[in-house]
Design brief:
- The structure holds 2 protein chains of 2 kinds.
- By secondary structure, chain A is mainly alpha-helical.
- Chain A contains 11 helices and no strands.
- In chain B, the strands form 7 sheets. In chain B, strands 13, 14, 15, 16, 17, 19, 20 and 21 form an 8-stranded antiparallel sheet that branches.
- In chain B, strand 20 and strand 21 form a beta hairpin.
- In chain B, helix 5 packs antiparallel against helix 8 and helix 15 packs across helix 16.
Chain lengths: 252, 973
C-alpha cells in the first residue's frame, strides 16, 4: 500500500538536481558529469552516432574538402569521446545540439592552430559513419548564403526529422502496414482542412472513416516521437517547445 | 539511412511554405512543415483523455448563486457532474455542465432549448428527472438533475459479477424507463452501465437521456462515419463520443439514422455484461455457455444483440415481457445493493480461501509477535530492535552504523503491522497487493526473520498461482456503513504515547515515591513500552491504509478523522522527539527534558487534532441534509487530497532522516574535531609545534607548570583564523609567522577572536582539567579539545580587547573519598537512577545505566552526568560480596563523543572493570577526589606584546610520590 514512504538514512548530502531527470540521453550524460559512467558513455556515443551529419555539413560549409571534412569529423569524435568532454566548456549544456556545435568550434579552432595531420582512433574505436552518403547529401543541398550556424541547425533538424520518420515507418512496418505509411505520409504535413482521404482510402482499400482514424493516429504518434527525439538531446524535458521553435526558425 | 546517391536535380520547394526541400532526405516531406505540425497541440482527444478540465468548485459557485456546490462527482466525455444543494428547496441535485466547446455552435442554443424541453417531459420514476437547464454567462450550458444516492452499474460490475437474479431485477426497470421515453419519442443513444444508476433502495434510474445527441450536435453528412476499430475513442469533426462498445452497428455507421432500436442493442450489451461479466465479443457466445444461467435467457439476449435492427426486438417492453415470463425473477427490485458481501462464493473462491487460510494465519501470528516484541524491547533496555541486534551480535560497530540501524529499526513496528493487515486481507481474499506486501515484509523484517522467511516465501509462491490470484478482488465497501476499524486502531495507537507521557510528567511533577526518572525506575520501564514504539511510522502506515479503504468505500466506511489524525500525529511525534532529543534519545536523560518533551508533543497534537475535528465536521455535514441522505465521498476523500495527506506524513519522517544524517556527520569523530577553524591552518600549527626544538617528552620548556603527578608546559598561543598564521609564546614573544593557506572567511564576530592554546603534557598525568577564566570561552562544545600524542590544543574565543588570559589547570590530588551515592546492583538498580551530587556549592546529576558482562572476566557499566562539581574528580567503583573494591577505568563514551573535556556539561562514559565478575558485585559507588588547581595568569593574547606570566600554586601543593597512586586509574591522554 502507500504507507511506506521512508528511506533509510543516508549520510550523503543533497545530490545535484540533474539526477532527478536523468531519463533523457543528454541528461544522463550531464548527470554523470565528470565521472565516466558506462551508461553515460553509451548514451553519448548513441547521440553522436545519430547527429554526426550536421557536424559534417558545418565543416564542409567552412570550406574544407571532402577528405578533410571526413578526417576532421572523425577526429572530433575521437577526441570528444575519448576525453572528458564536459570539462572546460561552459556553453549551453541544456541542449546537446548547441553544446556539440560549441565543442566542434572549439575543436576546429585548435585544429587550425595546429595544422598538423590528425590522428585517428587512439584507443577509441572510430564511429562508423557513412561518408559516401554524407558527401552526396551535402552536394545536393542548396548552397545558399546561410550562416554556418544556421546551416548546422537546419542539418540538425533534418537529421532529427529523418530519424523520427524512420521510426514511424519502422513502427508501421512491424504492424504490417508499411505501405499504409507510404501512402498516408503526405498527410503528416497537411492542414486539417486540406485533408481529402478519398484517394488514399481507395488506394489502400480502407473506408473513409478508417483512413481518417489511421491518419489521426499517425499524426499523433509522429508528434510523440518528435517530442521524444528532441527530448533525448535536452537536459530537461520541459525545453522541448523552445528547441522546436529554434529548429523551426532555422528554416525561416 | 539508405546509402543511395540522389540526383541533385530533384531538389524542389515545398508547395506549402516555400522552403527548400532537402531532396532525398525526408522523401519529399518539407521539414519546416513537419516541425510546424510537430509543435501543434493535440486537438483531438485520445481514449482516456477528457476534452476539458472541469472547473473547480470555487469557480463554479459564483455562477450558480442558488446552489451550494459541494464536490465534483465525476467527469466524462460529455461534461462534468457536481453534487450540489438547492438552497431554497433544500434538496440535493446533480449539476451537470457541458464542455464550453460545445456551446460555440450558434445553432446549438436553439437545439439545446428544444431538446431540453423534450427531456423535461420525461417524468418517470425510472428516469433521472431533469429539473432545470440553462446557460450561464452565455457560454456554459448546464443541467440540474435529480441526485441519485447510490452507485452506478459500472461500479457494481467492477465489484464482481451480478447474480442472474439481480440482473433480472434490474433489466425490467430499465425497460420500463426506456419504453416510457420511446413513447415520448426520445431516444437515449448512450445506454451504458455508467448511465444506469441504482439507489440505496435498489431502484434503477436511467440517466443522461438524449444528452448524447445534444452534446454531439448535428452530425455531419459523411464525415461522421467511423471505423469499427476496437474500443478506441473516435472523433467526428471536433465532436466527442463515448465508447462504442455499446453502440449498435447502425449507430456506428450512420449516426444520423438511428432510432430507438439502438437503445435495445445497448441494453442487450449491458444485459450480457451483467450476466457474464464480459462484453460480447465477435464470436458472441451465448451467456448460458459462459455462466450458469437459464438457457432461455440466451434467446432474449441474443435477439437484443442482433446486428440488423429489423431482427431485434422492436419494442423494449417486449424484452421486459420476455424476461418476466421466464419467471426467473419478479419485476420488483431484487435489491442488488444489498450485496454487502460478495456473491455466493464459487467453488474456486472457497478453495482459494482454504489454501490461504493457514499461511495467512501464520503471517498474522508472525506480525503480532513481531509487533509485540518491538514493544517489549525497550523494557530490556534497548531503544529498539536495532540496538538489540547490535548488542546481541556483540558487534563492535561504529557509532553511526548503530544509529542508522536503530532508526531503520524504528520502521519495524510499521512493517509488522503491515504483515498483520496484509494477512487479514489475505484471509478475506481482498487486496492482492497488500497480501503480497505482507508476505514480502515477513521475509525481510526482524526480529522473527528466520521463521518469516519460510512463511513469507510460501505465501508469495501461493499468491503467484493464477487460480488463487484470480479470486482476489479489491476491498469492497460494506453495508450498512460502519466505522473503519483500522482508523480507530490507528488513532488509538497514535494517542498512547501522549497518554503515557502525560502520566510520566504528572508523576515526575508529583514526585511519587519509588518512581524514579532514572533508567532503572519501574515507571520509566513501563512508560518506555508505550512511549516510543507505537508512534512514528506504524501509525502512518495504518492511517494510510485506513484512508484508502474509506475512499474506496465511497461513503459507506467512516472514520476519516481518526485515520487522518493517526497518519499525521505519529510521524509528527516521532519527528519532534528525534529533532529535540536527538542523540539523547536514551530514556535516562528525560528527567530534565520531560517538560520539553510534553510540550513538544502537545505542539504536534494540537494541529493534528484540529485537522481531524475539521474533517469530522465535514463528514458529518456531508451526511446530513436532504431526504436522500447522500453519502458520496467528500472532497477530502478524493484521490489528490488523499495523496496530499499521505505525503504530509512523509515530511516529518524525511526530516528526521535528514536531521539525523546531518547530526551523524557532525558528531562523527572524524568531523567532530574540526570545529570552526580551518583544518589547513591547524595542520600547519600542529606540524610546527611538533617539529620545533625542545619538543620531546622529557624536555622542559619555558613555561612549565609543575603539577602533582607531572608537569604541563604551556607551549604556545596561536591564531589560525587570521590571514596570517601567528604563533607566540605565553609571554608574548613571537615564535613564527606564516601565510595561512586557508584563512577563516567567517569570523565569529568582529568583536571576538578565535585562538588556540597549545599545551604539552610532560608526563602521563591523571585526568587533566583545563579551565579558562572568563571572558575567554572554550570553543568546542562540552569543553572538548584536540589531543595528539602529548599535545593538547584548546580552541577558545576572547573579546578583541582582551589582552591576557588566565587559566587553571587541575589534577587529581590522589585522595579518593567515598560518597553516599551508590547503585544497588543486587537489586538491578531498581529504585535508583539519577542521583544528585552536591559539593562546594556546585551540583551535578549522575546516572548509572545497566551493567553488562563482558567476555574475558570483565564487565562494564555506562554512566552519565549532567553538570558536575568542578572542583572534584570522580570515579566509579564496584564493591563485591566480599567487600573488595574494584576500580573502574573509563573509556570514551560509545555515544560518539571523543575527547570530551573534563568539564563538559553533559557526557557519558563506559567504565570497564577487569578481573571481576558482575555476578558477585553488590553495589556500585561514586568516589570523589578533590581537584588541585594551579592557576596561570597573564598569558599574552597578542603576539609581540610581552606579559609577565605567573603561576600560582595551590596552597597545599606538593608533588606526590607515584606510589600512593596504585589504586588510581590512569587515563591515557
Amino acid at each position: 500500500m502507500n504507507g511506506d514512504s521512508t528511506n533509510p538514512p543516508s549520510t550523503k548530502g543533497s545530490t545535484a538536481s540533474a539526477d532527478v531527470f536523468a531519463t533523457t540521453h543528454w541528461s544522463l550524460v550531464l548527470a554523470a558529469g565528470t565521472n565516466r559512467a558506462p551508461q553515460a558513455d553509451l548514451a553519448m556515443e548513441e547521440l553522436c552516432r545519430s547527429y554526426w551529419y550536421p557536424l559534417y555539413a558545418y565543416i564542409r560549409h567552412q570550406g574544407h574538402s571532402r577528405q578533410d571534412a571526413e578526417d576532421l569529423t572523425q577526429g572530433f569524435f575521437a577526441r570528444f569521446l575519448a576525453r572528458n568532454y564536459l570539462e572546460g566548456l561552459s556553453s549551453d549544456k541544456g541542449r546537446f545540439r548547441a553544446f556539440l556545435l560549441a565543442a566542434l568550434k572549439h575543436f576546429l579552432a585548435n585544429e587550425r592552430d595546429r595544422a598538423a595531420s590528425l590522428k585517428r582512433g587512439g584507443g577509441v574505436p572510430a564511429l562508423s559513419l557513412d561518408w559516401k552518403e554524407a558527401a552526396s547529401r551535402y552536394q545536393i543541398e542548396p548552397a545558399d548564403q546561410l550562416s554556418p550556424d544556421k546551416l548546422y541547425d537546419r542539418a540538425w533538424a533534418v537529421t532529427l526529422l529523418e530519424r523520427v520518420i524512420q521510426r514511424l515507418r519502422d513502427e508501421s512496418a512491424t504492424d504490417g502496414k508499411a505501405e499504409w505509411f507510404d501512402q498516408l505520409k503526405p498527410f503528416l504535413v497537411m492542414d486539417r482542412t486540406a485533408m481529402h482521404y478519398g484517394q488514399a482510402a481507395a488506394a489502400l482499400g480502407l473506408t473513409h472513416g478508417a483512413a481518417r482514424v489511421t491518419v489521426h493516429r499517425l499524426r499523433k504518434r509522429y508528434r510523440e516521437l518528435l517530442r521524444q527525439e528532441i527530448g533525448r538531446t535536452l537536459s530537461h524535458p520541459a525545453h522541448v517547445e523552445e528547441e522546436m521553435r529554434t529548429l523551426f526558425s532555422a528554416f525561416s | 539511412m539508405n546509402g543511395t546517391e540522389v540526383n541533385p536535380a530533384t531538389a524542389q520547394n515545398c508547395t506549402k511554405c516555400g522552403a527548400r526541400l532537402p531532396a532525398g532526405a525526408l522523401a519529399g516531406l518539407c521539414p519546416a512543415c513537419l516541425l510546424q505540425q510537430g509543435a501543434a497541440p493535440d486537438t483531438l482527444t485520445g481514449p482516456a483523455a477528457h476534452p476539458f478540465e472541469p472547473p473547480p468548485v470555487a469557480e463554479l459557485a459564483p455562477l450558480f448563486p442558488q446552489l451550494e456546490i459541494l464536490a465534483l462527482l465525476g467527469k466524462g466525455g460529455m461534461g462534468a457532474v457536481y453534487q450540489a444543494r438547492q438552497k431554497q428547496l433544500d434538496r440535493w441535485v446533480a449539476l451537470k455542465i457541458l464542455p464550453p466547446a460545445v456551446g460555440e455552435d450558434h445553432a446549438f442554443a436553439e437545439r439545446f432549448a428544444r431538446e431540453a424541453r423534450a427531456l423535461a417531459q420525461l417524468n418517470h420514476p425510472g428516469i433521472v428527472t431533469l429539473y432545470e437547464f440553462g446557460c450561464v454567462q452565455n457560454r456554459l450550458y448546464y443541467f440540474l438533475m435529480e441526485f441519485v444516492d447510490g452507485v452506478n452499474l459500472r461500479q457494481l460490475l467492477a465489484g464482481g459479477r451480478i447474480s442472474p437474479r439481480e440482473a433480472l431485477g434490474i433489466v425490467p426497470q430499465i425497460c420500463d424507463a426506456l419504453q416510457f421515453a420511446h413513447d415520448q419519442g426520445v431516444v437515449h443513444r448512450d445506454i451504458k452501465p455508467e448511465n444506469i444508476l441504482l439507489d440505496r433502495r435498489g431502484r434503477v434510474k436511467v440517466a443522461d437521456f438524449g444528452l448524447a445527441k445534444l452534446a454531439r450536435g448535428e452530425p455531419e453528412p459523411d464525415a461522421a462515419s467511423l471505423s469499427s476499430a476496437g474500443p478506441a475513442a473516435l472523433t467526428g469533426m471536433g465532436q466527442v463520443m463515448g465508447t462504442p462498445n455499446y453502440m449498435a452497428p447502425e449507430q456506428v455507421e450512420h449516426p444520423a439514422d438511428v432510432d430507438h432500436r439502438a437503445d435495445i442493442y445497448a441494453l442487450g450489451v449491458v444485459f450480457y455484461q451483467m450476466l457474464t461479466g464480459e462484453l460480447p465479443s465477435k464470436g458472441l457466445e451465448p451467456p448460458s455457455r459462459k455462466v450458469r444461467v437459464d438457457v432461455r435467457l440466451d434467446a432474449v439476449v441474443l435477439r437484443a444483440l442482433e446486428r440488423n435492427p429489423e431482427l431485434r426486438y422492436q419494442k423494449v417492453s417486449e424484452i421486459k415481457t420476455a424476461v418476466e415470463t421466464l419467471g426467473a425473477g419478479p419485476s420488483a427490485p431484487a435489491a442488488p445493493t444489498e450485496r454487502a458481501t460478495e456473491p455466493a462464493p464459487s467453488a474456486a473462491t472457497e478453495a482459494a480461501r482454504r489454501t490461504l487460510r493457514r499461511p495467512a494465519n501464520a503471517l498474522l501470528l508472525l506480525g503480532a509477535a513481531g509487533f509485540a516484541l518491538c514493544w517489549v524491547l525497550p523494557s530490556l533496555g534497548f531503544a529498539n530492535a536495532g540496538m538489540f541486534l547490535a548488542r546481541l551480535a556483540g558487534w563492535d560497530l561504529p557509532q553511526p552504523v548503530v544509529w542508522t540501524m536503530m532508526w531503520l529499526a524504528s520502521l519495524f513496528p510499521a512493517l509488522n503491522l503491515a504483515i498483520i493487515v496484509g494477512a487479514l486481507r489475505m484471509r478475506a481474499l481482498q487486496d492482492l497487493g497488500l497480501a503480497r506486501a505482507a508476505a514480502a515484509c515477513a521475509m525481510l523484517v526482524p526480529p522473527l526473520m528466520p521463521v518469516g522467511l519460510v512463511v513469507g516465501a510460501r505465501s508469495l509462491l501461493l499468491l503467484r498461482d493464477a487460480k488463487i490470484r484470480h479470486e482476489f478482488h479489491p476491498f469492497t465497501p460494506p453495508l450498512p456503513s460502519r466505522l473503519s476499524r483500522l482508523a480507530v486502531a490507528c488513532a488509538l495507537l497514535a494517542i498512547t504515547p501522549v497518554l503515557a507521557n502525560a502520566l510520566f510528567t504528572a508523576v515526575a511533577v508529583l514526585g511519587i515515591v519509588g518512581f524514579s526518572v532514572g533508567p532503572a525506575g519501574w515507571g520509566q520501564k513501563l512508560l518506555s513500552v508505550f512511549l516510543f514504539q507505537p508512534g512514528g511510522t506504524a501509525t502512518a502506515f495504518l492511517g494510510a491504509v485506513a484512508l484508502e479503504d474509506i475512499r474506496r468505500g465511497q461513503g459507506r466506511l467512516r472514520g476519516a478523522a481518526p485515520a487522518a489524525f493517526g497518519l499525521l500525529f505519529g510521524p509528527c511525534q516521532f519527528w519532534l522527539l528525534g529533532a529535540l532529543c536527538g542523540p539523547r534519545v536514551g530514556l535516562e536523560n528525560l528527567s530534565g527534558d520531560s517538560g520539553i518533551l510534553f510540550i513538544s508533543i502537545l505542539a504536534a497534537l494540537l494541529p493534528c487534532t484540529g485537522l481531524a475535528l475539521w474533517i469530522q465536521r465535514h463528514e458529518t455535514r456531508c451526511r446530513q441534509g436532504g431526504s436522500t441522505h447522500p453519502r458520496r465521498h467528500c472532497w477530502w476523500l478524493s484521490s489528490p487530497a488523499l495523496r496530499a495527506l499521505q505525503a504530509l506524513a512523509a515530511i516529518p519522517i524525511l526530516s528526521i532522516v535528514f536531521s539525523l544524517s546531518h547530526w551523524l556527520l557532525v558528531q562523527h569523530p572524524w568531523t567532530a574535531g574540526q570545529g570552526r577553524t580551518q583544518n589547513a591552518g591547524l595542520s600547519v600549527l600542529v606540524a610546527r609545534l611538533q617539529a620545533s626544538p625542545g619538543y620531546g617528552p622529557k624536555t622542559a620548556g619555558h613555561f612549565t607548570v609543575p603539577l602533582p603527578g607531572g608537569e604541563v608546559e604551556l607551549r604556545a598561543v596561536a591564531d589560525v583564523a587570521a590571514p596570517e598564521l601567528v604563533c607566540w609564546q605565553p609571554d608574548g614573544a613571537v615564535l613564527w609567522r606564516a601565510d595561512n593557506p586557508a584563512p577563516d572567511r567567517a569570523q565569529p564576530s568582529p568583536a571576538a577572536r578565535s585562538l588556540i592554546l597549545a599545551l604539552r603534557v610532560g608526563e602521563p598525568l591523571q585526568t587533566l582539567r583545563i579551565d579558562l577564566a572568563p571572558p575567554a570561552q572554550q570553543a568546542l562544545p562540552n569543553g572538548g579539545r584536540w589531543e595528539k600524542r602529548d599535545l593538547i590544543l584548546i580552541p577558545f574565543t576572547v573579546p578583541s580587547d582582551a589582552g591576557q588570559l588566565t587559566l587553571r589547570l587541575g589534577v587529581e590530588s590522589g585522595e579518593w573519598q567515598d560518597t553516599d551515592i551508590g547503585w544497588d546492583w543486587g537489586r538491578k538498580f531498581r529504585h535508583q537512577g539519577a542521583q544528585i551530587i552536591r559539593r562546594s556549592g556546585q551540583r551535578g546529576v549522575v546516572t548509572l545505566d545497566q551493567a553488562t558482562e563482558r567476555p574475558g572476566h570483565a564487565f562494564s557499566a555506562i554512566w552519565q552526568w549532567q553538570g558536575f562539581p568542578r572542583d572534584w574528580f570522580r570515579r566509579l567503583v564496584a564493591v563485591d560480596e566480599n567487600g573488595a573494591i574494584h576500580v573502574g577505568k573509563a573509556s570514551p563514551a560509545p555515544m560518539g563523543f571523543v575527547t570530551v573535556g573534563e568539564l563538559a556539561e553533559w557526557a557519558a562514559e563506559e567504565v570497564w572493570f577487569q578481573g571481576a565478575d558482575l555476578a558477585r558485585i553488590k553495589v556500585f559507588r561514586l568516589q570523589l577526589s578533590p581537584c588541585r588547581w594551579v592557576e596561570v595568569q597573564n598569558v599574552s593574547l597578542h603576539p609581540g606584546i610581552p606579559t609577565q606570566v605567573k603561576v600560582v600554586p595551590p596552597a597545599e601543593m606538593a608533588p606526590r610520590p607515584t606510589s600512593s597512586r596504585q589504586s588510581s586509574t590512569v587515563r591515557a591522554l
